[in-house]
Amino acid sequence: MLWTDLAHGEFRLGYVDAQGIRTRCLSAGRGDGPPLVFLHGSGGHLEAYQRNILPHAAHLRVFALDMLGHGFTDKPDRDYEIDDYVDHLVAFCDALHLPQILVSGESLGGWVAARLAIRHPERVAKLVLNTAGGLTANAAVMERLRTLSLEAVRNPDRAAVRRRLEWLMHDPRTVTDDLVEMRYLIYAQPGMARAMEHIMCLQLMPVRERNMIPLADLRTIAAPTLVVWTSHDPTGKVEVGETFAREIPGARLVVMDGCGHWPQFEDAPAFNRLHLEFLLDRS
Predict the structure, then answer these.
(1) Catalytic residues
(2) Domain containing 109: what range?
(3) 33 with 60: CB under 8 angstroms?
(4) Using the 8-state DSSP alphabet, how is residue 64 labeled?
(5) Which of 47, 41, 23, 37 lies closest to 203, judged by CA?
(6) Is residue 44 part of a domain?
(7) Residue 250 region, left (φ>0) first, then alpha (ψ -120 to 50), else beta?
(8) Is the residue at 112 inside a domain?
(9) pTM metric for this prediction
(10) How far, in Å, CA of 223 to CA of 30, rounded?
(11) Is 1's pLDDT higher than 70?
(12) Per the domain annotation, does 76 fall within a domain?
């Protein structure tokens, strides 16, 4: 059930002014633990990490945010490319006085996290790329994602939202009614249809191609890196994860079985275990 994963713990849900962008953020954890920032995927929102926040907050300061144009964060009327997301993330971290972070991104979030590590290596202590984008431009996958996303916001109804969420999962039964309701509320916001067009610009081939990560750039990443892929990811085969792990110096690849594009949600216990092992140097 949505939010019951957080009901037994302490957290704060509010907004951060990231250089004029009102940014929705959930934070948890206390003390001197290094800050961990979770970044969701295209068309997503911070609830993608509802099953991961408290297990990580027991050890770390945890932040999950709605990225630029997503969720309940502000939606400037312009297309959002990867450097726009990176700039917004840097502004978010500056507003919270986080000079260096552990960063874990799923899909689009992984693409942004990798670009942050390339552009601002001093700001990334450790990097997790979870079914990350940035290396592939599969026209069929791009069109499917764009179609489902725009369909879900142009005439928002719960059935269309459910189809969009089911595309993420290996087992469609993983999609709960509460998760559908949360995303429906986000997608039914005034202006969301226009914002989704800006978000989906990365599913247009010319835009995607100029934002893709050159392999030479991956080789410059200095942060210790964990690559998480899955057995049934709808955006790319395990070979994509293998490429990330091969090109980033010292990176390690873990493949989660029985999951699609949201392993942190689909098999949260396994994800939390391997994720914390890496972040806390337990492996």
Answers:
(1) 107, 233, 261
(2) 12-137+214-279
(3) yes
(4) E
(5) 41
(6) yes
(7) left
(8) yes
(9) 0.96
(10) 24
(11) no
(12) yes
